[in-house]
């Protein structure tokens, strides 16, 4: 396994990375009816797992990106497509992302893999799926890769993983998102992150967060220094990025994995493309399409066929479980 040639060839409008990135968010109209199961965590908190099942012996655990949820359009699109191909799915909402605040001052971060492990254990203990697959988008992809590389004993039911648009190097990605061309995305992320943090501070008045540093944050470096690092015990943003970037865990992954990062993804720095780390890797295929944007990979504007990445996911699943 190593670097593989991509089949993604979009029409001209989707060769614009920003248009490709925002298209599903703005124009994908399908909704999905989940069955929600709230499960308890060992630290007296909860996770909301949203199931969409069709009676399969295979389930895909689908992880959303930063400030997303089970309702994120890229996730709804993938789950709807996989359901149509008779594959069950579950979308865990990271803490504070399900529409209800969680029980602690802290919530989630790009390297917090224990909630994925809790979800996997819940599936193993309460269902009898023959095949479990992991699917992670963006931050969810970083968590997926980190989990696979840091976990000593992966359950035999986990047959493979697909990670899409992954900021494998958090420092590089954070600096890329701080550039002017990504200011719209950065402002959108920071808006909800700040709002949630202010509410947390009111709920937990005894905290170690500087409100002025939160409100004046203009980048992930600012926010992670002010919030993420103190809440999760990191020295600073650099320490958090260094310890939680999935790139360093790739060498120890022993689960068949497909990683897809588009070359024109403006969220990713050059360091987010782990070509050296996946070269001659026994378990990972790295696919770098020329186009795709960030969790975009659309193929048709007016037709129904938007689904290159969804079809690629299905192809990988069939390969993993065959």
Task: Describe this entry's structure for a reader.
This protein is an alpha/beta fold and 322 residues long. It has 2 domains: 3-169 and 249-321, 3-Layer(aba) Sandwich (Rossmann fold), CATH 3.40.50.1820; 170-244, no CATH class. It is built from 11 helices and 9 strands. It has helices spanning 17-27, 73-84, 114-126, 139-150, 170-177, 183-203, 211-215, 220-232, 237-244, 275-278, 308-321, and strands at residues 3-4, 35-40, 46-52, 58-63, 88-93, 131-137, 158-164, 257-260, 284-287. The protein has a 9-stranded mixed beta sheet with strand order 1-9-8-7-6-4-5-3-2, with helices on both faces. Helix 2 links the parallel strand 4 and strand 5. Helix 8 (220-232) crosses helix 9. The longest helix is centred in the middle third of the chain and has 21 residues, at 183-203. The radius of gyration is 19 Å and the shape is globular. The chain starts with a strand and ends with a helix. The mean pLDDT is 96.
Compose a concise summary of this entry.
The chain is an alpha/beta fold and 322 residues long. The protein has helices at residues 17-27, 73-84, 114-126, 139-150, 170-177, 183-203, 211-215, 220-232, 237-244, 275-278, 308-321, and strands at 3-4, 35-40, 46-52, 58-63, 88-93, 131-137, 158-164, 257-260, 284-287. It is built from 11 helices and 9 strands.
